[in-house]
Amino acid sequence: MNMLAHKNFLYLKGNDNADILFHINTSSFYRIYDPVFMRGFRAVFENNVEDENVFKKLEEINNKDFSCLVNCTHCKERIISKANNFTIHKLALVLTSKCNLRCKYCYANYGMYDYDEETDISEDILVDGLNYFMDNFKDIENIQFFGGEPSLCWKQIKRTVEFFKYQIKSGRKKEMPGFGIVTNGVCLNDELIEIMRKYNFQITISLDGPEEINNELRFDVNKKVNIRLFERTIRGSFKVG
Ligand code: SF4
């Protein structure tokens, strides 16, 4: 599957019935049914063709002029319709662009990727984002904490768990989502470990094999070897599955 990009949109060629358009700014999905539009969209996204009809439609969505009510003309005529009414299998939350390690092979610019600056997500933005997904999608099955090194933002992890506990209590959601974290495992504090245990987190830990190899490759920000810290934190805390 090839994801095609154009300005604030991603486009995925679907089956014979519909293609998928994704508006990045509002995390909204649209299905494109109409064959003429489909050809136009594909031409714009694949070959940078200038198609006024498609540009107009993208502009409408971008400026929120494109209403997608159940009975709107677009849906009735099966041209294009909003398609957020599905369950999100996994919502990945990038909590920070900071990392506490300086691995020699780092592929992620030490958590920065292409971001302009090192930053953590604020609790307000996190809650706004979670509310957005609760409001606009059917359900969320799993949450994955990602970064940078997400355990540096353990308070935001705690806030996320509390957010979902409240959703259950208030009847807005039926079940707690599954939680997962991708971590280097060297800065997990006791409170975070307790949360991870209590909510049965799926933990993906990066470790570079035997101690001598790991120590050649992985250092903390002060260029110190960190394997002992890793061992102290992890050993005895979790079942390895
Ligand atoms: S743990 Fe290592 S590889 Fe992962 S983001 Fe940090 S420095 Fe890069």
* Rg estimate, integer Å: 22 Å
Number of helices: 8
**Average pLDDT, all residues:** 86
What is the string of helix and strand elements?
Answer: EEEEHHHEEHEHEHEHH
User: What profile does the largest beta sheet have?
Assistant: 5 strands, antiparallel
Taking the alpha carbons of the first and last residues, their distance comes to 31 Å
As a percent range, the share of helical residues equals: 25-40%
Number of E strands: 9
Give the strand content: 15-25%
Bound molecules: iron/sulfur cluster
Low-pLDDT sequence parts: none
The side-by-side strand order for the widest beta sheet comes to 1-2-3-4-5
Plain-language structure description:
- By secondary structure, the protein is α/β, with parallel strands linked by helices.
- The protein contains eight helices and nine strands.
- A five-stranded antiparallel beta sheet has the order 1-2-3-4-5, with helices on one face. Strands 6-7-8-9 form a four-stranded parallel beta sheet, with no helix packed on it.
- The relative contact order is 0.10.
- The model has no long low-confidence stretch (mean pLDDT 86).
- The structure holds iron/sulfur cluster (SF4).
- Iron/sulfur cluster is lined by residues 99, 101-103, 106, 108, 110-111, 149, 184, 206.
